[in-house]
Amino acid sequence: MDAADLANPATETRRGRDGHTGMTWIPGATFRMGSDRHYREESPVHRVAVDGFWIDQTPVTNSQFRAFVRATGHVTVAERRPDPKDYPGALPHLLYAGSLVFTPPVGPVDLQFWAAWWTLVKGADWRHPYGPKSGIAGFENHPVVHVAYPDALAYASWAGKDLPTEAEWEFAARGGLDGTDYAWGDEFTPGGRHMANTWQGQFPWQNLAEDGYARTSPVRAFPPNGYGLYDMVGNVWEWTRDFYRDKHPADSARPCCIPTNPRGGPEDQSYDPCQPETRIPRRVLKGGSHLCAPNYCRRYRPAARYPQPIDTSTCHVGFRCIVRTTPSPDNEEFRR
Question: Is 9 a domain residue?
Answer without folding.
Answer: no
